[in-house]
Amino acid sequence: MCLGVPGKVLEVRSEQGTRMATVDFGGVTKTVCLAYVPEVQEGDYTIVHAGFAITRLDEASALETLRMFTELGMLDELGEADAGVPGGAT
Amino acid sequence: MKYLDEFNDPALARLLFEQIDAAATKSWAIMEVCGGQTHSIIRNGIDQLLTDRVELIHGPGCPVCVTPLEMIDRALAIASRPNVLFTSFGDMLRVPGSREDLFSVKAKGGDVRVVYSPLDAVNLAQEHPDKEVVFFGVGFETTAPANAMAVFQARDRGLRNFSMLVSHVLVPPAIEALMTSPTSRVQGFLAAGHVCTVMGTRQYEPLAQQYRVPIVVTGFEPLDVLDGIRRCVLQLESGRAEVENAYPRAVRAEGNLPAQEMLAKVFETCDRPWRGIGMIPMSGWRLAPEFAAFDAERRFDVGELSVSEPEARTLPRGRSAAGHTQAGPVRVLRQGVHPSHTDGRDDGLQRGRLCRLLPVPPARSAGGGASWLRPPPHRRSTSRAGRARCRFGTRTAS
Ligand code: SF4
What we know:
The complex is a heterodimer of chains A (90) and B (398). With 90 residues, chain A is an alpha+beta fold. Chain A has a domain at 5-59: Roll (SH3 type barrels), CATH 2.30.30. Chain A has one helix at residues 59-75, and strands spanning 5-15, 18-25, 28-33, 45-49, 52-56. Chain A has a five-stranded antiparallel sheet, with no helix packed on it. Chain A starts with a strand and ends in a 15-residue tail after the last helix. Among the domains of chain B are: 5-58 and 178-245, Rossmann fold, CATH 3.40.50; 69-170 and 257-299, HypD, alpha/beta domain 2 (Rossmann fold, 3-Layer(aba) Sandwich), CATH 3.40.50. Chain B has 17 helices and 13 strands. A six-stranded mixed sheet of chain B has the order 4-3-5-6-11-10, with helices on both faces. A five-stranded parallel sheet of chain B has the order 2-1-7-8-9, sandwiched between helices. The chains are: A alpha+beta (90), B alpha/beta (398). At the A-B interface, strand 4, strand 5 and helix 1 of A face helix 1, helix 7, helix 8, helix 10 and helix 13 of B. Iron/sulfur cluster binds at residues 35, 62, 64-65, 338, 354-355, 357-358, 370-373 of chain B.
C-alpha cells in the first residue's frame, strides 16, 4: 500500500491552481500532483505515491550511497572487477 | 530506470551480504516495519541468502491488513447505499468484513470504483453532483498527505457530495506497542522509508533511546534493504541504539514540511484499533473538527456500527510500559495466522486471501509468505538440501 515509485518529471503545469506534472515511470506516464514538492523541477526524479510526489530524489545522496557500497568492498579487499561502480549510476 | 537499476546491482548485493555475514557474530532478530520491504525481501529472495544469524521478522507494515473489521463493515454499509459512489485503492476491495467484501458489494450492483489517487475521487464528485462520492482513506503516514489534500480540495471546490471514511494508522505508536510487549523478540527495526519521506526521522529518536533499539530508515530496492540490515547489525553488535538514515536520497531528517503542514490542518491524532492487534492509543489520524463535514462516518451515521473481533487483544490504555505488559501485539503474532486471513474460521479457507496482494513465489507462499503474523522464526528450513537460492546467487548453508 505504501508503495512509492521513482519517476522522472517531464513537464510541469498548473491545473485548477495546483502544480501538477507528467511523470515518466520507465515508459509509462502519469499525472502527478506536485503540491508537496515545490522544489521539484522538470528533469528531476521524485517518488510518487497515490498520485502525489512526496520527495525529490537527491542525486548527490544516491551517488554517495553507491560509492560507499563500492568502497566497503575495497576495504574488504573483495573489490574484484565485478564490484565496481554499477552501470547507470551517472 | 534511474534509481532502480543501480540499487539492484547483483555485485554490490553480494558484497553487502558478505558484509552482513562478517558483521553478525551473534544472532539478531530484526523487524522490517513496512510491507513494501517485506515484498522486496521475498521477491528478491533476500531472506534466502542472508546469514542464519540474522532473522527478519515481518512487521505490521500493511495498512490493508491492520484496518479494523468494524471499519471494513462501515465501508461496506456505506458502499451498499443506493446513491453512493464508493471509491478506494484497489487493495482494499478484497479485504473481508464480517460478512463480505467490497467486491461482493460491487457484484451486487453497488457503485464501487478503484481510483489511483484520492484526487480522482474528488474529480468524480465534481463530475457526479447527483451522487454521494465517498473515498476510503486508509494508509500510513505515506498516504495521508494525498488523502488530506483530497479533503482540502473538496472544501476548496465547495463540493458537498464528497466525504472520506478515514482509517489512518501511524507507525511510531506501533513500534512502541511492539517494544513494550513482553513477548517481543525484536532487537532492531528497519523503519519504513516512505513513511519517513513524509514524517522525517526525528520522531523515532525518543523510541530508539527509550527502548534501546536501533532504528534504521530503509528503502525498498534490494541494496537499500541490505544496507538497512547491515547498519542495524553493526549497531546491535556495537551496542548502539540510534536512528540512522540508510535512504538519504529520499529521506531528510525533517521530512516533507509542506505535507506535514497540510496533515496538521486536516487530521488530528486519535486512538485506533488495529486488526489482529487491538487498540493502540493515539495510533491513528481522523479528520479534524474543522473538516467534520467531510467525515463519512458522520454523514452516513455508521460511527456506532461496531463488531467484536474475537481474536483481537486490546492493549490497555495509557502509555506506560507497565500498562502494556499483559497483551502485546506479538502475542497475536505468535498465533501465526492473522485473523483477517482466516476471518475467524479454522478451516483456513480464507487464509492467504490477502496474501494474494503480494505476489509470493510458490515455494515461499506455503508458510504465509508475506504475512507479518507468521510465527518466527520465518527463515528457510535447512531441509532444502542445504542450499538456498536467490536472484543474487546461491548460498550453501553452513
Ligand atoms: S499479505 Fe496479508 S498480512 Fe501480509 S501484509 Fe498483506 S494483508 Fe497484511
